[in-house]
Amino acid sequence: VQLQASGGGLVQDGDSLKLSCEGSGRTFSASAMGWFRQAPGNEREFVAGISWDGSSTFYANSVKGRFTISRDNAKNTVFLQMNSLKPEDTAVYYCATPGLSFVRTNPIDQRYWGQGTLVTVSS
After folding, report:
1. Tens-place pLDDT, residues 13-26
2. What is the secondary structure of the chain as a DSSP string?
């Protein structure tokens, strides 16, 4: 599976942004997907995850109620809609998959990673 993330950019406090991650390979539609982020000086952390069929979603407490993960298996794409962005959301965002049908929230359990897209939220 190859993953290509896009959609990052510079926004202001309170703005919205939508990230996309397009995957290739026959197993994409059978695999759970996740979004992770890494701010300078911090470890990579789980943001949101979605099961292979979209029936289950999971969020970090810090983004719950503001971010929404979704997927379109017909287009091999997973999305992260980010609303009410805060300066502390500034990070490089990565999409990843454990290559399994269920979500894994630990970065070390991810098998494939996208290249990352930078989100900067100014105050």
Report:
1. 999 999 999 998 77
2. -EEEEE--EEEETT--EEEEEEEESTTGGGS-EEEEEE-TTS--EEEEEE-TTSS-EEE-TTTTTTEEEEEEGGGTEEEEEE-S--GGG-EEEEEEE-SSSS---SGGG-SEE---EEEEEE-
